[in-house]
Amino acid sequence: MGKTYAEKRKRPRADGGFELVLSTDDAGPERKVRVRDVSSSGVSCHIDRAVKEMTQVQIDLHLPDEDDLTKVSAEGAVVRCREVADNPPKERYEVAIFFTGISDDGRMSIERYVMRRLKNEEE
Question: What is the DSSP annotation of 38-98?
Fold first, then answer.
């Protein structure tokens, strides 16, 4: 009988498909990058270059809402960066970011977005 593995993540996660603005102290100008998935504890995105783990970043998410976009600003730390060779050059690296600073309102906006996306996937 095969082993089953429990999901490591404590918070539900939803597919992204939208952009965020990412900036770091050492990365030069801010850049728009594509979100792979998001939860209220962090975000995974695709970027054109490697970013060292534990790099501190500033993020502006523009969550698609029912009628508009909801802006959520957060600070985070890069916890994983891996090259995805099959991706196009501008999305060559997948970067996972853990939120280290986010308002309660921002976290709630992300939770609402995630729950809405998961509910739509079930229908």
Answer: EETTEEEEEESS---TT-EEEEEEEEE-SSSEEEEEEEEEEEEEEE-TTS-GGG-EEEEEE
Intervals of the chain under pLDDT 70: 1-9, 26-28, 66, 123
Model's pTM, two decimal places? 0.85
Residue written as token pair 């992204």 = 16
Burial 28-38 (b: 16+ CB within 10 A, else e): eeebebebbbb
By three-state DSSP, how is residue 29 classified?
A: coil
Number of domains within the chain: 1
- Is 62 inside a domain boundary? yes
Virtual CA dihedral for 63, 8, 50, 111, nearest 10 degrees?
A: 10
Check if the beta carbon of residue 34 is closer than 8 Å to that of residue 19: yes
